[in-house]
Specification:
This protein is about 35% helix and about 15% strand. The chain is an alpha+beta fold. The chain folds into two domains: about 45 residues, no CATH class; about 55 residues, no CATH class. The protein has a two-stranded antiparallel ribbon. Strands 3-4 form a two-stranded parallel sheet.
Length: about 120
Amino acid sequence: MTTTATNAPNGADMTQPHIERFRSDVPIGSLIEAIDRDGVAMVEDAIPPELLSSLNGEFDGLISAAQPGTPNHIEMLIDFMGHKTIRIDGLPGKSKAFVDLLQHPLASRWPITTSCRRASTTC
């Protein structure tokens, strides 16, 4: 994420993040370089439109059926995770479209997490 200097209304010098964006045919090396450098990158149109439509349809149904809050009796976790947050755990067991996304050929091209080149453990 590169930054651009700006002047805040109060006169302070600020930096504004710029997230590098890529097309879905980005070479994997370029994507890894951006993630290693900036910690983030965006791949536009990464999910094919028909799969995105299926995901949205399935997720909409799951979200509308879910109750807000955390199904947990530990008060600290309830406070941490939120009283109004809606969570859908176990997506692979609830959404065929999510499994299709995980198995999509393009998903294996892109790192889901940052590069392991600097990590002390294996990915």
